[in-house]
Amino acid sequence: MEHYTIATIAEKNPDFRQVLWTGKHTQLVVMTIPPGGEIGEEVHEVDQILTFVSGVGEAKVSGQTRKVAQGDLVVVPAGHKHNFVNDGPNPLVLYTVYGPPEHAEGAVHKTKEEADKLEEAGKDEPPAS
């Protein structure tokens, strides 16, 4: 059994992205987006569910924009363009579940720039099923 006090773990995460757990069909990831930062507009071929722990921001999914804050959950179906922007003065902290996994098992990306570089180099691939 895996057990996480997820809000506490997410709040303590200093990194842009950290993969906590990878299973055959899903993956648990914590993220911290700095003030003025963003995930970056993207489209995944997997489903994604994001739950916000602290901070405030904007969710942009399939042309719709909504404010997000602590306790909010946003579902991004596979194939939908999305971005999440921190428009507050504090980090935007969240955890997300991908189904199936989207990132390399155990990956830690200190910054968005590092994450983008590793993705472009093909070094952030999910495990082969």
Summarize the structure in short.
With 129 residues, the chain is mainly beta. It has helices spanning 6-12, 112-120; strands at 17-22, 27-33, 47-54, 56-61, 64-69, 73-76, 82-86, 92-99, 108-109.
Polypeptide structure, described:
The chain is mainly β and 129 residues long. It has two helices and nine strands. The chain has a six-stranded antiparallel β-sheet with strand order 6-3-8-2-1-9. A three-stranded antiparallel β-sheet has the order 5-4-7, with no helix packed on it. The mean pLDDT is 97. It comes from Winogradskya consettensis. InterPro entries: Cupin_2, Flavonoid_dioxygenase-like, RmlC-like_jellyroll, RmlC_Cupin_sf. This is Cupin type-2 domain-containing protein. It holds the Pfam family Cupin_2.
Topology:
Blueprint: H1 6-12, E1 17-22, E2 27-33, E3 47-54, E4 56-61, E5 64-69, E6 73-76, E7 82-86, E8 92-99, E9 108-109, H2 112-120
Antiparallel strand pairs: 1-2, 1-9, 2-8, 3-6, 3-8, 4-5, 4-7
Pfam families: Cupin_2
Protein name: Cupin type-2 domain-containing protein
InterPro entries: Cupin_2, Flavonoid_dioxygenase-like, RmlC-like_jellyroll, RmlC_Cupin_sf
